[in-house]
């Protein structure tokens, strides 16, 4: 399968995951809102706000998927890949602003405010059960995509989520996981309110839902912040690129190697290498072209390669490399 086909398949699966989650969240939001009004449950209303936030999140993620796929142009010669991280960051803000904030407000209002009488708790139980089933469908699709990606990279799911360069499946997976936990908390709040007659349990459930959403928003916001700033490629890829360059007959030493994620499955490579002094200018030019083509071929995510000939003995360059990498630079002989 070609590189373009692999990216199209990955993007298509992410779109499917987001669309499924968005449709599910919209349906659930309506059910929860109606049930919240009927039962008077703060936890149920908090869950409705949670689902509304998730629906806005899916809209932002769809925007990210579509806009980040635009081709490079004069104003953006490296393409629009990083725009996916911007819209995904807004999705994380949406989870906190509209979901966590409302849930915390509703929870504290229920705990310290006037007691609220619960009505028709059976309606709440039915809606929560239906919502759990629907959320499970969306969560299953997100989990399948995450698990498939982890297997392809020979990583645990946790490590895959930590180093993933496509925020869409991570966002859907975490928000759906939080949704399932939130439904359990809401059920506990409604049930304890029903059994004891005290709305405090309902309020505590709302507060816990708000804290849960705030944690998820923080994790996703931190992930997208790192990607927006310009995270380097995964270490196995960086090591592979370094070894490939160091193994070239024309190169005596890899003095410096920098990589950066330009977007999902897009890596920029900047290498400073010390070529054999016996080579002529034309030999160096041909070597640079060949090595760039080899890196494109061996590492499918590498989209841009810049190779700069430099002397390894240059003191200013060595000082700059040591300042950036410290002891790691010495270990690699930079």
TrEMBL record:
* KW GTP-binding (keyword) present: no
* Ranges that cross the membrane: 85-105, 125-143, 172-193, 199-221
Membrane topology, as annotated, equals: Multi-pass membrane protein
Q: Could you state one GO biological process linked to this protein?
A: zinc ion transport
Q: Which Pfam families match?
A: Cation_efflux
What's the main place this protein lives? membrane
Recorded GO cellular component terms are: membrane
Name the keywords, alphabetized.
Answer: Membrane, Transmembrane, Transmembrane helix, Transport
MF-aspect GO terms: monoatomic cation transmembrane transporter activity
Protein's cellular compartments: Membrane
Cite the InterPro entries for this sequence: Cation_efflux (IPR002524), Cation_efflux_CTD_sf (IPR036837), Cation_efflux_TM (IPR058533), Cation_efflux_TMD_sf (IPR027469), SLC30A9 (IPR040177)
Residue ranges constituting the Cation efflux protein transmembrane domain according to the UniProt record = 19-229
| Name recorded for this polypeptide | Cation diffusion facilitator family transporter
Question: What is the source species?
Answer: Amycolatopsis methanolica 239
């Amino acid at each position: 399968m070609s590189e373009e086909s692999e990216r199209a398949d990955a993007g298509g699966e992410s779109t499917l995951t987001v669309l499924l989650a968005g449709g599910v969240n919209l349906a659930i939001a309506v059910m929860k809102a109606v049930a919240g009004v009927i039962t008077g449950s703060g936890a149920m209303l908090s869950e409705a706000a949670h689902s509304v936030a998730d629906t806005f999140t899916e809209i932002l993620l769809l925007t990210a998927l579509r806009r980040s796929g635009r081709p490079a142009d004069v104003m953006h010669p490296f393409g629009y890949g990083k725009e996916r991280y911007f819209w995904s960051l807004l999705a994380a803000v949406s989870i906190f602003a509209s979901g966590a904030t409302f849930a915390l407000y509703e929870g504290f209002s229920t705990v310290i405010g006037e007691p609220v009488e619960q009505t028709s708790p059976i309606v709440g139980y039915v809606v929560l059960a239906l919502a759990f089933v629907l959320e499970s469908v969306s969560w299953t699709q997100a989990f399948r995509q995450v698990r498939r990606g982890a297997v392809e990279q020979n990583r645990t799911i946790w490590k895959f989520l930590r180093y993933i360069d496509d925020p869409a499946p991570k966002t859907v997976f975490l928000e759906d996981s939080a949704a399932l936990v939130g439904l359990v908390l809401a059920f506990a709040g409604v049930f304890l309110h029903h059994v004891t007659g005290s709305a405090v349990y309902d309020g505590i459930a709302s507060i816990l839902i708000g804290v849960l959403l705030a944690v998820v928003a923080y994790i996703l916001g931190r992930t997208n912040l790192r990607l927006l700033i310009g995270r380097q490629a995964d270490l196995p890829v960086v090591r592979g690129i370094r070894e490939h360059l160091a193994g070239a007959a024309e190169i005596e030493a890899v003095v410096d190697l920098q990589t950066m994620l330009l977007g999902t499955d897009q890596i920029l490579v900047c290498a400073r290498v010390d070529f054999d002094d016996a080579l002529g200018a034309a030999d160096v030019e041909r070597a640079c072209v060949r090595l760039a083509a080899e890196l494109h071929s061996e590492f499918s995510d590498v989209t841009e390669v810049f190779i700069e000939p430099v002397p390894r003995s240059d003191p200013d360059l060595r000082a700059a490399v040591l300042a950036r990498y410290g002891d790691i630079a010495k270990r690699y002989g930079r």
